[in-house]
From TrEMBL:
Residue ranges of domain Peptidase S8/S53 in the record: 152-473
Signal peptide: 1-20
Any single GO BP term: proteolysis
Name assigned to this protein: S8 family serine peptidase
Organism: Neobacillus citreus
Location within or outside the cell: Secreted
Coarse class of the protein's main subcellular location: secreted
Length: 488
């Protein structure tokens, strides 16, 4: 059975879906190899490899610390056979994540303003700070940098598409030697897409654009190639590896709809869900603060009816049980919705929301005109009403990449490595940067203490107190540092 996974198409987010496709009519000799996640009870048994081979499979990846194994098999009976192993808690087909882009990017170079003008930057400008509304707000116009801009001993792991380590705004802060790839067939963590470099710049850029902590170190844990998706086990392996490497913060700009595991397996949570939960808990127990994006589906994460209707309308599939979004609804993470430049009452039109939201981060949007039209009729076509200057400007690979997300034109017509993007993918790294600077000031803080500090220092947007849109409010590093007794 060949797996065919649905793709969520809302701007710049790493989306995960777990729709299995229909079986193709092919001769048995052409049976395609499937990948599976096996979640064992406790430690891996000494004979797990032999058991997998006896069931007709082959071990592809082992994450020993949390008892997770990725196996491959072309045997249609493999899953039923291996599930009979009493040492296994859960087994299932492996889920896959895909990197999303704006749907029109492949058709035309995206316009930048409602009048059709492209967003243009001067490559000779000494700084683009005047265009970073998001950083201005997060840092109180740069005042936080004078108090604490992070330090190189504090590492933020970027589990994403990689990083452009040669970028002039990142080369001093990006840890090439410590970075790793988990994509089979690749040997390095260089970014071939663009998404990860934009995320990394939001955390620690120090040049024409600034990140929240321009003194922090960012390290790439690459789980996405130039094209295609990332298997669940690659992401799981990256989380565990980053925790073992001693990073202080993990950023995962990853989101997407998943059914609750008991809809997929007879033994409880699905193997992929177990793997995700174990990996994140492993990281937290190692003292790592994990920051994740809420997702870009414009949905209430806590409204089961809303989610069921979304799946039915979008994919024609009836979900009979609970549903959750991962990693946004996994316990222990800091879940980030996306705020915008022009409103303190309404989050970005695409952002998920609900009780799972801890805080918001400025992820940008298409401006108030587009927002008003979208909210009147989400199905309408308002592409010519977008204003990209309301998105967030950050680093982008300084070499051409195939991701299709470059939204910025330069006056000399050359490629200079900056782009306007929006999404909860852009919101989460702002909060990860805040977490990194807090850890720089207080390396003794536990993940729970970091999360509490972020919530307590947030700007209270939306309804007074905690609300489903902003959580505790929009994260703000200056608010924390201004009241902190420990200075850099």
């Amino acid at each position: 059975m060949k797996k065919r996974l649905a793709v969520l198409s809302v701007c710049s987010v790493l989306s995960i879906s777990l729709l299995a496709g229909v079986q193709a009519d092919k001769p048995k000799a052409e049976a395609e190899q499937e990948h599976y996640v096996l979640a064992y009870k406790g430690k891996l048994p000494t004979n797990f490899t032999a058991k997998i081979e006896q069931a007709g499979g082959k071990v592809e990846r082992v994450v020993e610390e949390i008892g997770i194994v990725e196996a491959a098999s072309s045997n249609q009976d493999f899953l039923s056979k291996i599930s009979q192993d009493t040492n296994i808690q859960s087994a299932g087909r492996e889920l896959e994540a895909y990197l999303e882009t704006d749907p029109d990017d492949a058709i035309q170079f995206t316009p930048g303003t409602p009048n059709g003008q492209k967003v243009t930057l001067d490559p000779n400008a000494p700084s683009y700070w005047d265009k970073q509304w998001d950083m201005q707000r997060l840092t109180h116009d740069g005042d936080s940098y004078k108090l604490n801009d992070g330090n190189h001993d504090t590492v933020v792991a970027v589990i994403d598409t990689g990083i452009d380590f040669s970028h002039p705004d990142l080369k001093d802060n990006a840890d090439l030697a410590g970075s790793r790839t988990f994509v089979p067939g690749t040997t390095d963590a260089w970014d071939k897409n663009g998404h990860g470099t934009h995320v990394a710049g939001s955390i620690a850029a120090n040049g024409k654009v600034k990140g929240v902590g321009p003194g922090l170190t960012v390290r790439a844990y690459r789980v996405f190639g130039a094209t295609g998706g990332a298997q669940q086990s690659w992401i799981t392996d990256a989380i565990v590896a980053a925790a073992n490497d001693g990073v202080e913060v993990i950023n995962m700009s990853i989101g997407g709809w998943r059914w609750m595991a008991h809809n997929l397996g007879e033994k409880g949570d699905s193997a992929s869900m177990v793997a995700y939960q174990r990996a994140i808990q492993f990281a937290i127990q190692k003292g790592v603060t994990v920051v994740v994006s809420a997702g870009n589906d414009s949905k209430d994460l806590n409204n089961l009816h809303d989610m069921q209707a979304y799946w039915k309308a979008t994919y024609g599939i009836d979900i009979k049980g609970p549903s959750r979004v991962v990693p946004a609804q996994i316990p222990g993470v800091i879940t980030v919705s996306s705020s915008n430049e022009w409103s303190d009452k309404s989050i970005a039109f695409y952002s998920n929301y609900g009780n799972a939201i801890d805080v918001a981060g400025p992820g940008g949007d298409n401006g108030p005109l587009y927002d008003s039209l979208y909210r009147q009729n989400p199905a309408g076509n308002y592409l010519d009403k977008r204003d990209y200057t309301y998105r967030t400007l950050s680093t982008y690979p300084s070499y051409p990449v195939g991701g299709g997300n470059a939204t910025t034109q330069f006056t000399d017509g050359q490629w200079h490595g900056y782009s306007y993007l929006h999404g909860t993918s852009m919101a989460a790294p702002k909060v990860a940067g805040v977490a990194g600077v807090i850890k720089s000031a207080h390396p003794e803080y536990s993940p729970a203490q970091v999360a509490a500090a972020i919530r307590q220092s947030a700007i209270d947007f939306g309804k007074v107190g905690v609300d489903p849109l902003y959580g505790a409010g929009e994260a703000n590093i200056y608010n924390f540092l201004a009241k902190d007794t420990v200075k850099k």
